[in-house]
Specification:
It contains 20 helices and 12 strands. α6 runs antiparallel to α7 and α8 packs antiparallel against α12. By secondary structure, it is an alpha+beta fold. The structure holds flavin-adenine dinucleotide. Flavin-adenine dinucleotide binds next to β3, β5 and α13.
């Protein structure tokens, strides 16, 4: 069975009907482009995905990277596939022309990447991390650092990593121990151990540029004493040729349940004299700079989770249309032909849930991607600041909701295929394994929920929180203009009232009660808020669909829009109401987890 990797009609819908990407060409930065350029970029990505990534997807999963004592090796086809992405310009699609980029809107690059991710999953991680590394250096590095490291990363000559995690320090970066010492020759020497570093070693590029968080000797304890350094695998001479080995040694290669295309490494820095590190910006501001990369990576993680959910949905949908099995409860005749499993309402339930999760999640990550663009390129300063406010507030939800519901969607894709989904003849089990990383890296779900409730909601007089509610309320007003959407705008209004009451209660409890108890159910708050955000984005999709149906579209389009309205209905009936249970747990300050004693387990 040849399944589609993604539903192209839906990607078109998201880009041009939901987010009106065509209007971006009125912005100065994008004035050279038009819808045709956008389409051809996406088409190129699709072609590369089908030609280079899809054929090696399973091979990448089975043939895990190996270490020969000197270097980590990946299957050679991976380099060919990544080179195809780099040569097409897609790797630096959003970068400035001066840095050999295409200056494309990030939302278009996201859609192009969707095809590559759907076909190659974590293989694209090498490029995404390199791009995010280069973007950080471009924003915070000196011209010398940019010249020396960013250009070769943009061209694919070097690749980049993000080296934060240590054996004793994952979620709580404030405790990291990797050290930096300013030596007599005026250079920083870095020493310490990092683990789980994605792309930390491989044979795909001639050099690897690690962005390493370390503490300069004598710096304050905690997050205020962390600095950021460029630590290359090989030093680079003034003429651009590779110099000495920089004492970045591979101390281990991790084997994982998924994401096997992307090497996961334990690295040891500077065991003898210290690895040479080049300071980015100023000392002790390292975490602030790293947030540039982490925030980008968080949208990327959300995107990956949503895309894996979309492709799993598409695969199980195509399968369900083709697999004959059983008969409907109303059909008693054993001589009657079997029906395809999509005829069974329970299979449709699983497909509908996947559609609601994956298309809701993808709408959210595209919204986040557009905000990240708006904060830089929107026409007025006021619009740019507003986009920043919304994005800053929503980042924990953009990262987490798709990461939590993406694997749920993939789990349902396996269930649709049942036994055939559990074996590796079909890729749905692989999607699940690959997707399962997303609630873990770039801040676990627990950490994101604490960030949302304890930091993002109260900060700045709750400005980001209030702006988000205002956006939702605007959509409700528009939806009220469509008779068949009024029921949903009413439900969303009630959900918002509940959210406001719950938030008010928690803000006051955080100020007056035992903070550990109040925050003990923060994940439920994130889920509550996340479900409302997705319900809002489904209402937006409903508005576009209702408008389109009024224009009496062609029958295929009519079916597409009806499918959107059905998924909207599903989300409002099956998913949104769960918030009331979560709100009760939160406002009762339920202490089930808080008061559980270690010795009672
Ligand atoms: C495949 C893979 C790729 C990765 N890539 C990179 C990379 O490229 N660069 C990099 O630097 N790191 C990377 N990481 C590391 C990743 O970001 C960490 O695994 C993650 O931050 C969690 O840290 P930890 O695994 O040490 O878990 P821990 O921090 O030990 O957390 C364990 C559990 O405790 C909970 N917890 C911890 N602290 C708190 C708290 N204060 N309050 C409530 N709950 C808490 C967590 O939510 C989690 O459930 C990667 C990890 C993996 C598995």
């Amino acid at each position: 069975m040849a399944a589609k990797i993604l539903n192209e009609r839906d990607i078109e819908f998201m880009l041009y009907e939901l987010f009106d990407c065509e209007s971006l060409i009125t912005r100065e930065r994008y004035q050279d482009h038009d819808k045709q350029t956008f389409s051809s970029v996406i088409e190129t990505a699709k072609t590369i995905a089908e030609k280079f990534f899809l054929p090696i997807r399973q091979k990448l999963d089975i043939h895990q990277p190996t270490f020969d004592g000197k270097k980590v090796h990946v299957i050679p086809e991976l380099k060919i596939a990544l080179d195809a992405v780099i040569d097409s310009g897609l790797a630096s699609a959003t970068a400035d022309y001066e840095l050999d980029g295409m200056q494309l809107p990030p939302i278009i690059a996201n859609a192009a990447n969707a095809y590559l991710t759907a076909a190659g999953s974590t293989a694209l991680g090498y490029i995404s991390l390199t791009t995010a590394n280069a973007n950080l250096l471009e924003a915070h590095g000196s011209p010398t650092l940019i010249e020396k490291w960013v250009k070769p990363m943009r061209s694919g000559q070097y690749m980049g990593t993000m080296a934060m995690t240590e054996p004793g320090c994952g979620s709580g970066l404030g405790d990291l121990t990797t050290s930096a010492v300013l030596s007599d020759d005026g250079q920083y020497r870095i020493s310490g151990n990092k683990i789980f570093i994605s792309g930390g070693d491989h044979d795909l590029s001639e050099n690897i540029v690690h962005l390493v968080l370390a503490r300069v000797k004598g710096a304050p304890k905690g997050v205020k004493g962390i600095s950021l350094f460029v630590v290359p695998k090989f030093l680079v001479n003034d003429d651009g040729s590779l110099g000495n080995d920089n004492e970045v040694a591979l101390s281990g290669l991790f084997h994982k349940m998924g994401g096997r295309a992307h090497t996961s490494t334990a690295l040891s820095f500077g065991e003898k004299n210290g690895s040479v590190g080049y300071l980015v910006g100023q000392e002790n501001l390292g975490l602030k700079y790293m947030f540039h990369m982490m925030n980008e990576a968080r949208i990327f993680v959300g995107s990956m989770a949503a895309i894996l959910a979309l492709t799993g949905y598409q695969y199980s949908l195509d399968y369900a249309k083709d697999r004959p099995q059983g008969r409907l409860p109303s059909s008693k005749d054993p001589h009657s032909p079997m029906v395809n499993i999509i005829e069974h309402a329970d299979v449709r339930r699983m497909l509908l849930a996947q559609k609601a999760y994956s298309e809701g999640a993808y709408a959210l990550v595209l919204y986040g991607t557009q905000l990240a663009d708006d904060e830089k390129t929107a026409p007025t300063q006021e619009e740019r600041e507003y986009a920043h406010l919304l994005l800053d507030f929503l980042t924990p939800i953009i990262k987490t909701w798709p990461s939590e519901y993406g694997p749920k969607a993939n789990d349902l894709a396996i269930q649709v295929l049942a036994g055939h989904g559990y074996i590796n003849e079909h890729p749905v089990e692989l999607f699940y394994r690959d997707n399962r990383l997303n609630p873990i890296h770039e801040g676990t779900t627990g950490i994101q929920s604490l960030d949302l409730l304890a930091r993002k909601v109260p900060i700045n007089n709750s400005a980001g929180y209030s702006a988000t509610l205002q956006e939702i309320e605007r959509t409700i007003v528009v939806a009220n203009g469509f008779p068949n959407l009024v029921i949903y705008s009413k439900e969303l209004t009630e959900a918002l009232t509940n959210l406001k009451e719950t938030t008010q209660f928690l803000l006051s409890a955080m100020a007056t009660k035992n903070i550990d108890l109040v925050l003990s159910n923060s994940v439920k708050y994130l889920e509550l808020f996340g479900n409302i955000i997705i319900a809002w984005l489904w209402l937006k999709q409903g508005i576009v669909s209702a408008k389109a149906i009024e224009k009496q579209p062609h029958k295929d389009d009519l079916a597409f829009y009806q499918g959107k309205l059905q998924a909207l209905q599903y989300f409002y009936r099956f998913e949104l109401p769960q918030i009331y249970l979560w709100s009760k747990i939160l406002t009762n300050l339920d202490d089930s987890s808080y008061s559980m004693q270690t010795q009672w387990f």
